[in-house]
Task: structure prediction
Amino acid sequence: MTSFFVSYNKADKAWAEWIAWILEKAGHRVVIQAWDFRPGGNFVLDMQRATAETDKTLVVLSDAYLNAEFTQPEWAAAFANDPRSLQRKIIPIRVQECQPNGLLRPIVYVDLVNLESNAARQAILNALPERLKPNSEPAFPKSRQAEKRNEKPEFPNAPTPWNVPYERNPFFTGREAILQTLHQQLNQDCAVALSQIQAISGLGGIGKTQTAVEYVYRYREDYDAVFWVQADTTLELSSGFVAIAQMLNLPQKDTSDYDKVVQAVKQWLRRNLNWLLIFDNADQPELVHPFLPKNAQDGHILITSRAQDFQDFGIARPIEMEILEPEDARVFLLRRSNREELISQPSPKKRAEVQAATQLAAELGYLPLALEQAAAYILTKKARFQDYLASYQKRRLRRLETAKPKLGNYSDSVATVWTLNFQQVEETAPASADLLRISTLLHPDNIPFELLIQGRNQLGDALANILMNAEEDPLVVNEILEPLCAYSLIRVDEMEQTFSIHRLLQEVTRAEMETAHSFQIWINRAILAINQLLPIRKKEGLEYQDEYKNWPILERIANHGKALFQIYQASAYQSSEAAQIFDCLGVFLRDKGEYFSAESLLKEAMKIRKQLLGDAHPDVAWSLNSLAMLYDYQSRYTEAELLLKEALSIRKRLLGEMHSDVAQNLHDLAWIYKNQGRYSEAELLYQKSLPMFKKLLGIEHPMVAESLNDLGGLYINQGRYGEAEQILKESLAMYKQLFGETHPAVARNLSNLAVVYVNQDRYGEAEPILKEALVMEKQLLGDEHPDVAFILNSLARLYDNQGRYSDAKPFYQDALVLLERIFGPDHSSPNVVRRNLQGLQEQLNQ
Result:
């Protein structure tokens, strides 16, 4: 096979790579700068080798090539070896209207201008042999009159007939897995009628039609005919079949009886092979049924639709189109806005642009239609990504709607596409439309069914009435979701019992709510509904909540509470129920070690309560206490102490001296004093709060066990190991009786007990206890919890004390990484581990 060097200007890189691909696929060896000149190489030497070691030079002709300084030496080397073109060392390939001059002018070029891909491919391959004799006898020449009757020549190998209404999208990006899956499934060997039929399903603007277009262009050589039919309505389906009949020149093509035309086309499909029939925008799949050819197993049928149910077509699960992968979305933005040079190795000055494009893709939810709108505006206005991003973050949907799509089948904007669907849902299923409204105020992913079931009475009459019996008949929820699924407006996870919605669809729906002046109404409904899922808070301080048992439901609603928090802050709405949500979720996130998110929620809860209830109220004291303990976990002891003393003053004034909330305050204040090293003050408060808990709550209450455990920790700090061991064993037995063998409180107690043993050099007893606690903490709290890091540090210390330095080092390192991620590098907790690790390293270096 011949070897080729492809010479091109950077403006024609896409053409050069396409040509190189065609040649290598045909078995030739190709050298091309984009693929073969790698970082670290010498460009001049690479160019010398490329021209010297290849048989021919392919010149990608365009104005950019002819006017560039550095392209002439590339073909000049080949010209010097064959000045009379006897060996055809130079083969120009013209990809743009231009006029070669000078020494290139007399060389015959391959002209790809205005050719589609198959014809262009064939033109290149035909230019390679020294002689192009056909393999079979040419057809007998037609008469001049016959030539006139067939004035339009067909491209070589192009499917005939062909009525795809869209050009191939030059910026199509990604979707490789979907295209391969589609090709595989359509071509699978199956004898069942209508087995070679597949559907692409997804949200409006997700790129279904563009993917179908890419499929037909990519695999057009597999088919002898390709038919494209718009399937929005029965009229368009019928008109599409009339057009097919006319292309095929069927006898029924001119009849006014649509049924006869449809039957004629279906009969043609049954009798012929290797065709592809696309039904585009079949959002009502039932309309397509009368147009399907029965028992036509020698062709392929592809449907694009927002619907998700194609069981009547024998399709158990359609190919579901998701948003683009983040990298594909970024590349599309850069290519579509003519900033392709930023895709790889941008200069330092341009990295901010790449970062802005990456962030913009994320802000737009990686939705192809939204990316197209943004890129169209950026290209038209010659704007920077940084400026568009800043404007979008401020104006959101209003900025996006300033540009209409300009490529392919994109004719409507994001808002237009979805607003129409929303109106159609509202006309036929008002409760489903209301469900969409409530969804816009939550996190877009994993909205739990139980929010609808348990919060149904807070969601307006339409939802409340339909969901009335949802607890006894949970399928009612699926029935409400179905109209939204019909347009792929949501995605349902039946196993997790959740559904998800695209974030831009949320913005479009919120805009509708603002226009209808119902936004505040729905904020209130969302708050009240989420409140129905919260654990019942204790009243009069007499009920104890095992917070860990509440974690599963709190885990499912935490992100939705955070999303509602952002919307609430931007509104003028005030609600004590909102404070309840923010406080409960704040405590949950605090206990999980998500301190940054927890602080925002807890501070907002305290602010709301002070505004609505005044400074002296039990709920305000509760908020002060919750926030104080967060500050303690962050080693912000001074702030924590002030808040606890304020809460204690309120509770004593309102509840009296002998109340469990007062005892809780004293206990928490003792904890802070212990962490500050104020052991005497801490012990006094523990000795005061512990009897109060026993008297008010009973001697086998979780708060009694917690007080004993914390008091044991104080004794450890004071070096009173014998007392610590005794009291910790007492609290451990109580914890196991109350919570069972596996619980975070049990793990914390075991960890404290192990520290006693380590300090007494009882390493054989300490190690299995620490390992048990570590496994329990990871299982219950996850690998990223602060308590996991503390146990890792304790294990490292145990090995360090034994001189097992190689065993200790990885535990120190893991603890340090985790604590730095949670607290930041300057917090006291990672600093302690860092000092331990440095001391160990000194031992290893000796």
The chain has 37 helices and 13 strands. Residues 142-158, 190-195, 538-543 have pLDDT under 50 and may be disordered. The longest strand covers residues 299-305. The two ends are 65 Å apart (CA to CA).
